[in-house]
Structures are given as C-alpha cells and as structure tokens.
Specification:
Layout lengths: L12 H20 L8 H11 L6 H12 L4 H23 L8 E2 L2 E2 L1 H4 L2 H20 L7 H15 L4 H11 L6 H26 L8 H24 L2 H4 L5 H4 L5 H5 L1 H17 L9 H12 L3
Antiparallel strand pairs: 1-2
Helix pairs in contact: 1-3, 1-4, 2-6, 3-4, 3-9, 4-6, 4-9, 7-9, 8-9, 9-10, 10-14, 10-15, 14-15
The structure holds 3-methylbut-3-enyl trihydrogen diphosphate (2 copies) and magnesium ion (3 copies).
Amino acid sequence: MSAAGIPDVTASPLAGALAQIAQEIDATFDMLLPLPGDARQCLVEAMRYAAMGGGKRLRPLLLTSVAEMYGVSRDSAVRAGTAIEAIHVYSLIHDDLPCMDNDALRHGKPTLHIAFDEATAVLAGDSLHAFAFEVLADPATSADPFTRIELVQTLGQASGWQGMAGGQMMDLVAENSEFDLQTVTRLQQLKTGALLGAAVDMGAILAKVPYEARTHLRGYARDIGLAFQIVDDLIDYEGDAALAGKAVGKDAAAGKETFVSLLGPERARDQARMLIEQAIQHLAQHGPEADVLRAVARYIVERNH
Ligand code: IPE
Ligand code: IPE
Ligand code: MG
Ligand code: MG
Ligand code: MG
C-alpha cells in the first residue's frame, strides 16, 4: 500500500498481473459490446453490468500467463481470455438466479436479476455464452483456423454437460443426496476444474503446443482446480460476505456436501495446500517464465474472496 492507501501494483508480480489483466478484460468487453440504439439496449447493458468491473479474472490470467510463457501475442491471448471470462460470467449470472442459488449479491453489487430482471438475466447469460464462441471463431483471435477450432472445441467441452453445466447439475443434486468424497471430487472437477483447466489449455493451444507436451500443464490445472473449489467452499463456510462480495453460509444451509462438510475445515485447508504444492511441482521443468503460474497457485489458497 502507498501512503494514500492505493494498492501498489508493482509490489508483487502477481498483483501487477492481476491489475493488468483486469484492465485488459474490461477494455475488451467495452470494445466488443457496444450499446445498440434499439430495444436490445437493456440486454447489452445487462451484459456489461455483469461482465465489467468485477471478478478476479483468474481464468484470463491463467490463459494469458501460459500463452506468454510460449510467446503468444498479448492481443490474441487477451481475446481468448475475454471469451473464457464471458463463459464464467454467464455461469455466475445463471448460478445466482432464483431457480439455482437465489443470490442477491455478486462482486459486491446486486446480482443481475435483481438489478435488471430475471428474463433479462437469462438472456444476458445466453448472449455471453454465444459471445464467447463468436470471439474465439474470429480470425482476430488466431489467424490459424485449426487453432480456432481447437479453442472452440476445448471451451465447448469445458462449458457444457461434460464440464461446468454438468457439474452444476451434480451440485443441485447434491442438495438432496449423500455424496461421498469421490463423487464430490468429480462434481468439483466439473463445476470449477473444467473451466480452469480449459484456461490453461487454451493458452497452450494458442501457442500450438502439442497435446502430449501439455501433460504437466494438465496436472497443474487439475490440482489448482480442486484446490480452488475447496477454498471457495471454505470462504462459504468461514468467509466474510463483505470481503467475498457475495453471500456466505449458503452451502450448509442448502445441506450440500462439500469438502468442508466431509473433511472439516482444517483438513480441507490442508488438502488445498497439499494440492497447491503438487501443482507447483508440475511446473518443475520451467524456470522463471512460470513464476506467475506459481504465484497464481499460491494466491488460490491464500485468498479471502
Ligand atoms: C466463483 O469463481 C465461482 C466458482 C466457480 C466457484 P471466482 O471466484 O473465480 O469468481 P470471480 O473472481 O468472483 O469472478
Ligand atoms: C458456482 O459455484 C460455480 C459455477 C459454475 C458458476 P458456487 O455456487 O459455489 O459459486 P458461488 O459461491 O456462488 O460464487
Ligand atoms: Mg451454485
Ligand atoms: Mg452460487
Ligand atoms: Mg460457492
């Protein structure tokens, strides 16, 4: 912190990288989502309300950090990062709806269906979902059509029934089931791990790193993905709504089995820390160029929001 209380973004490489990606993602949404001068205006206003000015931007940060390690142009990486963030934002809009978690606070402000209305929130989610694939399929993201197709396929798989949406379904079923640790692990890998994994993968795809040469990155992504959701559950269990910018205490109230309910908070945190050490070990073949990925892994367990 500076004397004026303004965070010093040069204090750590991670703080600088987080501030930079936040600014770039906001600027890209701003550029690609102009307000139309007709009755669709409230739809685009709603998309911008949900997508801009909030969130840690972890998925774009992972994507651009991997891309940078392999020398991809910043512009391509930020566009692909904006696409995956659009999927993430859409998933949060729908997750907060009354038919799902029924939450009123997100990123420290009213959720989209409260600030606008439910129908607009559904349509803004739909439109951000479509927007993501439109951005990836645009030659401005990559000049190589094979790369674009691989990006679309990777994000599609990670978003739908084999990924995030499938995990969300399991999460709803979890409210009325007695899931064991193995099933909760699977649920979390889909609900959260799939998109985090896609972020890492997409950075490498942009760089044309062959599938076999990305095994260690998949290992890294799997471990941080699981640790990330354990910490999300810990924030829900013991976190502070003002810091988190969203309601807490919801999982227990809904009777949901999570790592915290199954292991207890201490063992859950130990498990998250162990996963982070393991994730960092997967990067052993890299030098300082992977320092941001190492810092992101540590940030995932130490964060409070
Ligand atoms: C929260 O994700 C929802 C989950 C997938 C558990 P983030 O913590 O990454 O959400 P942001 O940073 O508020 O966008
Ligand atoms: C949501 O999980 C994960 C998504 C795929 C959107 P949660 O319901 O635990 O996320 P929060 O706690 O509301 O952010
Ligand atoms: Mg939920
Ligand atoms: Mg929720
Ligand atoms: Mg949660």
